[in-house]
Amino acid sequence: MKTMKTNMKFLNIMAGATLLLGGLVGCSEEFLDRPPLDAIVDANFYKTDDQILAASAPLYNMVWFAYNDKASHGIGDARGGILTSGSYQLENVRFNTTGETAENGASWRAFYNVVAQSNSLINNIQQFVGEDVTDRIKNHGLAEGRFMRGLAYSYLVQNWGPVPIITNNTALLQDTTISRNTEESVWQFIIKDFRYASENLPETAVLSGRLTKWSAQGMLAKMYLTKAGVGGTRKQSDLDSAAYFAKSVIDNSGATLLPEYEDLFKTKNNGNVETLAALQWVYNAGQAGQWGAQNSVQAFLAFGSEITGFGDGWGGDIGASKWMLDMYDDLVFDKRRKASFMFPGDHYPYITQVPPGGSAQQLRVPARSLDGSRPYNGRAWVKKYVVGRPEDNEGKVVQQGTEINTYILRLADVYLTYAEAVLDKNPAEALKYVNLVRKRAGVNELDNVTWQAIFEERIKEFAMEGQAWYEFTKLQYYDPAKAYSILANQDRGTFRIYADQIPDPTLWEIEIPDSDTSPRFFAVGESNFKIPIPSSELSRAPNLRKPPVPYDFTAGN
Q: Residues in domain SusD-like N-terminal (predicted)?
């Protein structure tokens, strides 16, 4: 498999498309009354292969920005139990996400922005494509639109349940009767979109970073694995489909695990051999008048400006939950811990730290408190997607802007998807792929494998990648009591991490002081599991309150 390193041609096409978009994606109005202001609708535009590729380029960044910015870790990680906080994301941390919660509205609008932009791309290619466009690139553009639309709907249905399926945003301008569609309909729609993408994307990317057949097959495997539980019991036919597509990617894509886990989250390794699909960003897009094409997450996750080089780095009050840290086999030897969360005394030689009044040095995570002679921190600060200062990234960092790719899918995910899909039929095969993931992490291989082991492996492998919550939505479909129980018993309270020595600690202890009265556990049940539709959307589209109806698959794309 060719790697997915962003090349100049891709960036030029992406920048050109961004300029053509004109407006800001995040500023679009309510989802029911678009097409979005940013859609390319010029009938004279879709006349060459390069123009088709330019039209689909924003699907790799701008339309996802509002979700990636803060909502991905607010919904995907805080609700999933990965993050704790004293103030930031508290409604999500404490399982009290409401119709007014900021990350709720941002997510809903972002996903329907993706749907709208995908629909515009699909419909415009079908309507305006020129004679000089090759069938290969025409089908590629359509497949990119359907991949991204299917991905957006997978988030929508798992978070809000029944949602409206929209394929033509122009028609909606005259339609005030739009209603939600059943979850079964939405899942059928998702599978159709990814199947189309699988059948029409090439085995080798047309440009570095673009989607391939293996991107789509890997996502099909994940979608079938989740869809298997819709209806209350896991359907073996869906599990078999998940296993089939996952194994196809494993055997045929050429993707391999990157040898060092920590290297997955360094900007220089964008498009590495493990990457199957990723969002791609331009670090200074905001400064160039193209706000939303940069990756802004470091601003909210980094513990301080001393490691970003700018006035951002607002993540000092957030970090791993105790439940998350208790998952690790060993806090020292599991390589994923240090790559995901910073402990006092951790050494990151590839990140520069410039403390106030001090000089540049390699980052050694400070211990900011003392308990007698014992140094400690009250947070396990986030490391993943924190890439450091400009000097650590060839100058490519600005305030609220980096170029670190956001993973949509990597090979380790396909390994664990395959393991879960074949667990009952072939536990030895499941064990093989779980152990490949564990071996890379530096922990002992297992002698046998269970659903619980795979679940915990996914939590550790994908912490702070916005995935944990969707492990629970997958489980809730067929075993809601178990999903609620795990969530309600997660320790989401605060604690202290003591280092045995600073510098160069050799071990850490996690303790809850007797004086700590922070709330630690939160009730979870049917009433607060799904996220409520944002209040602003309900007021604009009251039909969203009506019972869902099956989708008519004889109409639309």
A: 89-225
- Predicted confidence (pLDDT) at residue 3 exceeds the cutoff of 70: no
Helix axes of 102-128 and 135-160: crossing angle, nearest 10 degrees: 150
**pTM, rounded to two decimals:** 0.93
Task: Note the pLDDT tens digit of each residue in 216-235.
Answer: 999 999 999 999 999 999 99
Mean pLDDT of 134-141: 97
User: Quick one: which of 321, 297, 306, 298 has its CA closest to 380?
Assistant: 321
Q: How far apart are CA 388 and CA 301, in angstroms?
A: 11
Residues 245-259: what's their mean pLDDT?
98
Contact present, 107 and 67 (Cβ < 8 Å): yes
β-bridge mates for residue 410, sequence order = 275
What size, in residues, is the chain? 557
- Identify the DSSP state of 72: I
336 burial type by CB count under 10 A (0-12 exposed, 13-18 middle, 19+ buried): buried
pLDDT, tens digit (0-9, with 9 covering 90-100), for 282-308: 999 999 999 999 999 999 999 999 999
Dihedral, CA of residue 296, residue 299, residue 303 and residue 304, to nearest 10: 150
Cα angle, residue 275 at apex, residues 271 and 281 outer, rounded to 5° = 45
Instruction: Sort residue 552 into left (φ over 0), alpha (ψ -120 to 50) or beta.
Output: beta
d(CA 557, CA 555): 7
Q: Angle at which helices 135-160 and 468-478 pack, to 10 degrees? A: 70
Place of tokens 């799904």: 530
Using a CB cutoff of 8 Å and minimum separation of 24, what contacts does 85-92 make? 85/317, 85/318, 85/319, 86/317, 86/494, 86/518, 87/317, 88/300, 88/314, 88/315, 88/317, 88/318, 89/318
Q: What is the pLDDT of residue 144?
A: 98
